[in-house]
Amino acid sequence: NESLFLNRILEASFLEKGIHFGPARFKNGYACFATFRRWLDNGVMSLMPHEDMAQVDFAREDDFEIASTQTVTAYNVCLEAAKGGGQLKIWNLIPDSECRERLGVVRTGYPYPPELLDDIESISVQLNTGDIYFMNACHLHGVSSVSEGSRLTAGRFIGKLHNRKVVYWT
């Protein structure tokens, strides 16, 4: 549903500033509108710690338009909240390319070993159905184990390509 992602509001707001807002282009097509994710527990976390900037570096190889963004913003909508667990956890750490290489996550940004993050400052947020949240997806983030119920989100990434263009992709 476009209203969940505030498309018309964002398009109009950016346009007032002379900035195009829309789906990223890849070859002769456009990026998907959103991705739906249901988090299932894997014994450690429902979604292991990761960052989403690695995908931008990888996109350079394919000439995907998103390759010129400097920051990845995640835009998510919580469609179904877990009754137990399933908190969003964000660490105060933005890995660089050397860190990715050391940990073998250069092309994916996933997964970072949770045990290496014990001493890194972090916050955890319990999301409720209907919550909309933006976050700097360059920071390590993940989802804690779901102990009861399930968690379903719809999401996309947003990046500024230059002073006149902001795009989204999945």
Please describe the topology of this protein.
Blueprint lengths: L6 H10 L3 E4 L1 E2 L2 E2 L4 E5 L7 E4 L3 H9 L10 E8 L3 E2 L2 E4 L5 H7 L18 E4 L6 E5 L4 E3 L2 E3 L2 E12 L2 E5 L1
Parallel strand pairs: 1-14
Antiparallel strand pairs: 2-3, 4-13, 5-11, 6-10, 6-13, 7-12, 8-9, 8-11, 13-14
Folded structure, characterized:
This protein has 170 residues and is an alpha+beta fold. Helix content is 15%, strand content 37%. The protein is built from 3 helices and 14 strands. It has helices spanning 7-16, 54-62, 97-103; strands at residues 20-23, 25-26, 29-30, 35-39, 47-50, 73-80, 84-85, 88-91, 122-125, 132-136, 141-143, 146-148, 151-162, 165-169. The strands form 4 sheets. Strands 1, 4, 6, 10, 13 and 14 form a 6-stranded mixed beta sheet that branches. The longest helix has 10 residues, at 7-16. The radius of gyration is 16 Å and the shape is globular.
**Percentage of residues in strands:** 35-45%
Structural class: alpha+beta
- Overall geometry comes to globular
Number of helices: 3
End-to-end distance: 15 Å
Mean pLDDT metric: 94
Order of helices and strands: HEEEEEHEEEHEEEEEE
The major pleated sheet works out as: 6 strands, mixed
Helix share, percent = 10-25%
| Rg over CA atoms | 16 Å
Short description:
15% of the residues lie in helices and 37% in strands.
